[in-house]
Design goal:
The chain is an alpha/beta fold. The protein has helices at residues 3-27, 32-44, 58-69, 84-88, 126-138, 172-177, 190-198, 205-210, 222-232, 237-251, 265-268, 275-291, 299-310, 318-321, 324-338, and strands at residues 47-52, 72-77, 89-93, 99-103, 113-119, 140-143, 146-149, 154-160, 178-184, 269-271, 315-316. The strands form four sheets. It has a five-stranded parallel sheet. A two-stranded antiparallel sheet has the order 3-4.
Length: 342
């Protein structure tokens, strides 16, 4: 492919991506930053976890993304009695009074499945998390003596952080498979809150989503354009050293002179960001640069995705884990401030 043709192709895809973002923002107001990060994850080919209080728009956001992304969409609700086979197949007595086996939500559409939404994933048992882990990592599952592949699949999940009873914490290995973990909050802008309360169009979600243009992105072509984006955005040696310093600071923040109130910094970190984690961070940063119309990385591209790609990959010692919500943002802000940007 010539340089001019590649440039034209990337510019065309960038316009499509921005149109996708504008369309989703019509249905979900006040969540511009999470929507931008989901767009980044789509083109970086990463899975996304949403976390937030009840009723802040997580499900509506993901349904809007699925509609505008196109392809087959399936959704499953996390429950304590959900078993792995419930994702793959289901059995029942048919109209002839005989047992029958039909494909479950993962297999029903074959390789056309582009979006799989796991609602309240932390209500499902660890056995279900294990199956999800394999699908996320390998885009494949074994069933009925054969392998099924899902080349276009991206998984979105949400986690209810309010209720703790009959829930199961997502293991660190599974959390590391998610490229991003996005926190969804109620909009702070009074005008947006007023719209959510009094504008009838936001009260009927099904009708609201029907107004969105379906299939704005040709989902079957995204796996082909994604590596082109990665190869087209350059990282200077200085930028690479900066990214390496950020990674090291997530593992040994005390070495960078970072202090957090009464925290013993030598005991805070149980495990810093993984190699897979920082790889995903850089993939996301390159897409952020492309969306901003550049073919080179700047520190702000990393800053834009640092919290979302790294925060859930830093694990604290148990004595500090209960204070995670208060400490993680302060830690990440401190790392950005202590590590000198080029």
């Amino acid at each position: 492919m010539s340089a001019d043709l590649k440039h034209t192709q990337l510019a065309d895809w960038r316009q499509r991506a921005l149109a996708f973002e504008r369309e989703v923002c019509k249905a979900v107001i006040g969540l511009d930053r999470p929507i931008r990060h989901i767009l980044i994850a789509v083109f970086a080919r990463g899975h996304v976890m949403l976390e937030g209080d009840v009723g802040v728009g997580k499900t509506t956001l993901l349904r809007a993304v699925a509609r505008c992304l196109g392809g087959a969409y399936e959704r499953v609700e996390g429950t304590i009695d959900l078993m792995p086979n419930d994702l793959v197949y289901h059995t029942y007595i048919n109209e002839h009074g005989k047992p029958q086996v039909d494909p479950g939500p993962v297999l029903k559409h074959g390789e056309d499945l582009s979006v799989f939404f796991f609602n309240e994933v932390n209500r499902a048992r660890p056995q279900v998390h294990s199956l999800l882990l394999r699908i996320m990592a390998e885009h494949a599952v074994s069933a009925f003596n054969r392998e099924y592949f899902f080349p276009y699949l991206q998984i979105f999940a949400d986690r209810n952080r309010v209720e703790k009873e009959e829930t199961f914490e997502i293991p660190s290995a599974a959390r590391d498979r998610f490229m991003m973990e996005l926190h969804i909050e109620t909009p702070a802008d009074p005008a947006l809150r007023c719209a959510l309360m009094f504008d009838p169009k936001f009260h009927d979600v099904d009708r609201l989503l029907d107004t969105l243009t379906p299939g704005l992105l040709p989902y079957r072509e995204i796996p082909q354009i994604a590596p082109v984006i990665q190869q087209s955005v350059m990282a200077s040696e200085t930028l690479q050293r900066y990214a390496l310093d950020l990674w090291e600071a997530t593992r040994h923040p005390a070495a960078y002179g970072l202090k957090l109130g009464d925290v013993d910094m030598d005991r805070l970190i149980l495990a810093g960001a993984s190699a897979r984690g920082v790889s995903m961070m850089m993939r996301a940063a390159r897409v952020a640069a492309w969306l901003d119309g550049r073919d080179y990385l700047v520190p702000e591209d990393i800053h834009d995705v640092f919290r979302e790609t790294i925060g859930h990959r830093i694990f604290f010692n148990p004595v500090y884990e209960l204070r995670r919500t208060a400490l993680i943002d302060e830690l990440l802000d401190g790392i950005r401030q202590r590590v000198a940007a080029p």
